[in-house]
Amino acid sequence: MSTELTECPHCKTNLKSGLFSSVTLLDNNKVKIINEFIESPFDTYCTKCGNELYSKYSKILMEEKQNLTQEFYNLIYSIPVISIHTPYNWEYEILEMVTGQSTTGTGVLSEFTSSFTDLFGVQSKRYNQKLKFGENMCLAQLRKQTLDLGGNAVIGTDIDYSEVGGQKGMLMVCMGGTAINITNIEVLGKDRADNIAKIKELNKRIDELNEYDLNDENETVIIISHK
Ligand SMILES: [Zn+2]
Which domains does the chain have, with CATH numbers? Predict the structure, then answer.
């Protein structure tokens, strides 16, 4: 960005710095966000025209990111994660090992041991929900890493549970497997193959959007569904 500019290239307002009224150029990050979405981009914008543009387009960026991320998690189960090592009929190249870890909240183990015989009771259900949540987190991590490696499935997956945090009774779930890229993807069926193609696009776009630094980013709540 040139410091010799005397007026805003976008709205032609004169740049000035004063105690009560100053018009300066926007920082690069804001300019990048505006230019991602605006129809005809300019090299830079001033605080007079740019702040409004920034708040408009950063909101659009945040919404897009949120929607795509939700869509991503809705489709992520399409990436097969299996325990066998050489699936029948799959042709694939081996990529790399992928891992996932998740720690549940406290008190899980004490709840479990006190209700060991109560397989259908409320305590047991809560325990299983927490465990399932931990497993789903790990699976999501394996799948995300696989996508980042350019893969579309995980084979030879192992799962481990271990107690951490001593008296607090926390439980850690660990998973590990080998990311592969199935080259005859149609072996999974058309719907699944289509979903995987879609999720690959989503992953790429979300990564692009994550490059932008939103300083007022809200926590997004994502529901990881599992089918
Ligand atoms: Zn301007």
Answer: 1-79+207-227 (no CATH), 92-183 (3.30.110.70)
